[in-house]
Specification:
Layout lengths: L14 E2 L4 E3 L9 E6 L1 E2 L23 E4 L2 E6 L1 H6 L7 E9 L1 H4 L4 E6 L9 E3 L2 E3 L4 E4 L13 E5 L4 H8 L6 E8 L20 H4 E4 L3 E4 L12 E13 L3 E7 L49 E2 L2 E2 L8 H8 L18
Antiparallel strand pairs: 1-4, 2-3, 3-6, 5-6, 7-8, 7-13, 9-10, 11-12, 12-17, 13-16, 14-15, 16-17, 18-19
């Protein structure tokens, strides 16, 4: 189960039962959840006083276990667990269209919507954003082993020329389209503060509780909300394939398949291509060296227009190490094994 951190954060000297789930501090960027597999009392505050987030160092690999005083935790990925269920909750498709300055002459806006499938006609809240229901058909996402990339198409209802009018203001070509797939159980708490149109009979136990054994009342929160439990796909609008009074159809493509878009060119070579002391190189130390990586004393520096003209980089990996030392990540732009022969 995926639980919001504020409701299910770890606490010290607390009795946990088998099946309890906790989340790590969000500042740790650990998106896994941790299920109790051995009941007991968690470690005291003193035990984790020297830890960065004053809590156990929760693992970052699925199925890895952690001993926490008497308690034992096992890590799992909430989305993967839901995928493996025999009867998972409804799959929710959400879409975000980014109309940026680059394709709209200085204008920018973001459109969010969901396809209105699974009988959901109300707006959906996920990750703090609202996705209104829009009549849409979308297909063609399947990948094959034939060597060609898919070019999905989606049709958006053009009621009252709404989409046509939008395209007059914004140029959709080249706009980024993000497809987000999640499950109903992971939607934001705000979806459960009233009618729940996406709840099935199997989901009722997740959103309703009994009172006096004779009636049902709505919970004020969804304890399985998780904005990180999602799969994202990024596409770009390549062309408007159809437009009429009923609908507008867009053809999507991966970025690599966009018209007039090419991969950045890099030549595989032994030597570093970056400009010495330039923005990519980043070396700005006062220490100077010859092309053979020999240090230049201050007395031997030849300065012209404020620059040391005999300070020359050899463009080799050894030159980079000589200047930056061995304790940092080097900005070396060459390819280490370019001269190796089979």
């Amino acid at each position: 189960m995926a639980y919001p951190y504020e409701l299910h954060k770890w606490s010290a000297s607390t009795v946990f039962s088998v099946g309890d789930v906790v989340r790590a501090n969000p500042l740790s960027n650990n998106t896994l959840a941790f299920k109790c597999i051995t009941a007991g009392t968690s470690g005291s505050t003193d035990l984790y006083e020297d830890f960065e987030y004053k809590e156990p160092a929760f693992p970052r690999k699925i199925a890895q276990e952690l001993d926490d005083n008497e308690v034992k935790w096992v890590a799992f990925e909430p989305l993967a667990e839901e995928l493996l269920r025999l009867a998972p909750t409804a799959v929710i498709d959400l879409f975000e269209v980014y109309l940026t300055k680059e394709v709209n002459g200085g204008q920018t806006t973001t459109l969010r919507y969901h396809a209105g499938t699974n009988g959901i006609t109300e707006s959906i809240k996920f990750g703090g954003h609202t996705y209104p229901a829009v009549p849409v058909e979308i297909d063609g996402f399947e990948f094959s082993g034939q060597g060609t990339l898919p070019r999905p198409k989606f049709k958006v209802a053009n009621a009252n020329n709404a989409i046509t009018s939008l395209m007059v203001t914004y140029n959709p070509l080249g706009a980024k389209v993000v497809r987000i797939r999640t499950f109903a159980k992971f939607l934001d708490t705000g979806n459960f503060n009233g009618a729940v149109p996406f709840a099935t009979d199997q989901d009722v136990e997740n959103v309703l509780v009994t009172q006096n054994n004779d009636s049902l009342i709505m919970e004020s929160f969804n304890d399985t909300a998780d904005e990180n439990a999602k799969i994202e796909e990024t596409w770009y609008i390549d062309r408007v394939s159809a437009e009429n009074l009923q609908y507008v159809e867009f053809e999507l493509t991966p970025k690599i398949d966009l018209t007039n878009v090419a991969l950045p060119k890099r030549t595989i070579e032994e030597f570093c291509p970056w400009e010495y002391r330039g923005p990519v190189c980043g070396y700005d130390n006062d220490a100077c060296f010859t092309v053979n990586d020999v240090a230049i004393p201050d007395a031997d520096k030849v300065i012209v227009d404020g620059k040391v003209t005999n300070d020359i980089c050899g463009k080799k990996l050894s030159s980079c190490k000589r200047r930056f030392g061995g304790e940092v990540i080097l900005p070396y732009g060459g390819f280490y094994g370019a001269r190796l022969q089979a």
